[in-house]
Every structure is written in structure tokens, then in C-alpha cells.
Amino acid sequence: MSSFDLIISGGFVVDPFNQREGYFDIGIKDGLIAEVSPQLDPTLADELSDARGYCVMPGIIDLHTHMSSWLGGRYAHKMLALAGVTTALDMSGPVDSVLDIARDYGAGLTIASLNAVRPGHTVKSDNPNMAELDSLLGSSLRQGAIGLKLLGGHYPLTPEATARAITVANQQHAYIAFHAGTNQTGSTIEGCLEAIELAAGQSLHLAHVNSYCRGSIRPAMTETEEAIRALESNPRIISEAYISPFNGTNAKCSGGEPESLVTKRCLLTGGFPATEQGMEDAILAGWAHINLPAGGAMTLAVGQAGCDYWRKQNTDAAVSFPVNPAEPRFCLAAAKRKTGGFIVDAISTDGGGIPRNVIVELGLSLVKLQALTLAEFVTKTSTNPARILGLGNKGHFTPGADADISILDLERQKPRTAIAGGKVIMHAGYVSGQGSKIITTTTGADAVHARGLTPVIVDLAKSGFYQGRQ
């Protein structure tokens, strides 16, 4: 019997959790890391993978994606695997749809999901009381979600209801994330600062911090500095930011105008009226990029092709706008606390089925610019996200850890191979992974099993989300 199912040999291994950086072989057995050594005997392995010339890191974990029929769709898993991602957090649900797509279109990833708090859909109004929020959280956990996502920037609640939702989740040690903005502020720096205040010292995941630093109220870098100061002063706030120039929102219109407040703001930013006609004009002019399926993935379409698809979907299509200035994106990715840790915990994409899965492409640009070291890049894209989600077996190459591995071409700034649980799910642009594992709580395990999926149980009370940074 062989000692290893697979040996990855000769790669430049970066594992900040174990303070390891150099040329090592990695032996994998039964889906786990078996040994890391400067040289392993190749005769002891069933298979060999030559990683000479490549960087080998713990599997990339994207803390902000979309993988449901509402946002992201059936191509999300394939697109994430192509981006070198092995684990991801869906940030809006609905969880039933996330699980169905994971079962039917999975590409070997491990995923978690949050259910949206959305007025008129999952709650009755913009001011749900504690009992309604508690009921929504309970049903979401039973369905397999790990918590809730407040969609404030798009579909806001009152400040009071927002604070109640954060409290309800904290009381049950459930995950709670917030696209900042209430019906008093919006998806701006003011909404960001309000979100931190409404958390009142409780745990909260503040989503895509860069999206509040677009210069809509004050100069973009002034807003960025405000966000950095506020986050450093509030260590219970977990955060991520993405580094793509494009955002993602919904183009659905009713009553002659977009339903999403973010979409309205993006149209106005581009000089178009926040109306259905304004949306059409923005698509034709190339400002609004409709997410259109082509070639087994979602692509960005403008002009008549984008407009035709948007109309064919009765306006209910995802849309992206180039609204993210470069300086805030890069500054937030690199900013550090006085203690040495990062202000923003993770680099994310807000992607999945939204075509901007550029953690590797743009993240490695920061490494080339010496804004981040390779070890820091791995910390922000694997080690920190694993700790936040309570995934003690991910984010490092300790023997016994899950064999989740991303192999990167540093020169081309592209992912070469993604391995999840010891199995190759993507290599050289070809996705071979199948199925999915679902991160859930003990409350949701039965629902996950019922859909024919494998649960990965986490205790969020013991996770970095609640225990803080180490």
C-alpha cells in the first residue's frame, strides 16, 4: 500500500500559519495533508504532480460570493473553481436555492450560505421586530444556512431593525453580515460608519468595505481613511474588500425604476437617470454591463446584446458597473493595524457567478507592487477566512488538515490547479470537480443530508467570527 495518494513536488510552498515558505513536497492521503518535507520519495505515491515553477498555498477561501438562482446562478461553482477557489461563502441565499445548485452543479467546493433579510420577501416590512427576526434566523439555520445577511445597501431596514437583527444573531452565535446602509443612510461611507455604530460592540461581518469608499459623499481616499480608522477602533467587526473595478447588483425594474438602491446610485454616478429607461441607455452606452451566460460562464455584455438579454429576462438580470476607484481598493487591501494585523481581514470578490473572480489576478498584482508579501496574500485569502468561518482544518498545511490547495502561476498571475479534499477540481483551465460539501451548523445538518449533500459542521461560537483575531 502506498504511503500517499498524491505527492505535489517541487513547488514554492507558502503557509504562514506554520511559518513555512520555501521549496517543499506535500504528501496527501485520504483527502488530508499527510506530510510536508523538503523531499518525499516519489515511489511512495500513487500519483505525482510536478509543481516546479509554481506557488503552492492552502486553498483560497472567498468570503463573499453569490451562488443562488437569485444571484450567481448555476455557473458560480465552475467559475470559482476556475479562479482557484476551494471554499466560498454565499452572501445572500436563498439557502434552498444555494443547496440545490450545489447539488446539481457543484465543482468540488466546500461552501456556506447566509439567508437574506429582505423587506417584502423574507420579512414583512423594513422594521421587523425581534420575534420575526428570530423566526427568520431559526428557519434559515434549519435549512442549512449559517446565519443572515442584511442587504441594507440594496433593500434597507430601519436603523432600529438593523440593530435588532445583529443582536438576534449574536445571541444565538449565528453568522451575521451586513451590506451597510439603512433607510436613513444608504451604501455610502455614512452607512458604513452607521453599521459599525449599530453593531454596538457585537460581532458583525461588514461586507465589501471598498464599496463605501467611492467618493459619493467625500473624496474617495478621505472616505477610505475614515473607514480604516473606524475598523481599527472596533475590533469585533470582521471585514473583507474586493479589488475588482466592477461591482455587482440587480437590474430588475418595477414601476419604471430599478428596485435596488445601489443600482439607482450607480446609474446616477454614470450620469444616467435612475429609471428603467436610464438603465437601457446605460447598457447601450457601455456603462451598465449585463451579466450574460456564454460558454458555460457568466460574461459582461453591453450594447444591444446586453440590452436584448436584459429585456428577455424581463429586466431581472445581474448588472455590473465600473464604480470602484483603484486607490481605495488597493489601500484597503494593504492597510494594517498598529498591532501589525490587517485592518480588512480578507480579500474577497463579491463574485462567484458574477464575473469578477480576480483574487489571484489582482491580488498578485499587489504582491508584485510589494504592497503585500506572498505570505500576506495567503493570510488574507486563506488563513484569515478559514479562522473566521471556524474551519480549523483549512487555511494551512499542518498534517491532518484538509488537503485544500491552490497552485498559482506567479508570472502569469493565474491559478493553475485547485485541489479540494485531495482531489483535483481544476487544472489548466479545465474543471473536473463534482459535488459540494456544505458548511453548516448542527441545526442544519439534517437539511443538508436531505438534499444528498455532505455537511461540514462548524461551531461559530468558537470561530474567529466570535473569538476575534489571534
TrEMBL record:
SUPFAM superfamilies: Composite domain of metallo-dependent hydrolases, Metallo-dependent hydrolases
Cofactor: Zn(2+)
Residues annotated as domain Amidohydrolase-related: 56-206, 341-427
Molecular function GO labels: hydrolase activity, acting on carbon-nitrogen (but not peptide) bonds
Pfam families for this protein: Amidohydro_1
Coiled coil: none
PANTHER family found in the cross-reference section: COLLAPSIN RESPONSE MEDIATOR PROTEIN, HYDRANTOINASE/DIHYDROPYRIMIDINASE FAMILY MEMBER
Protein's name in the database: Amidohydrolase-related domain-containing protein
Native organism: Anaerosporomusa subterranea
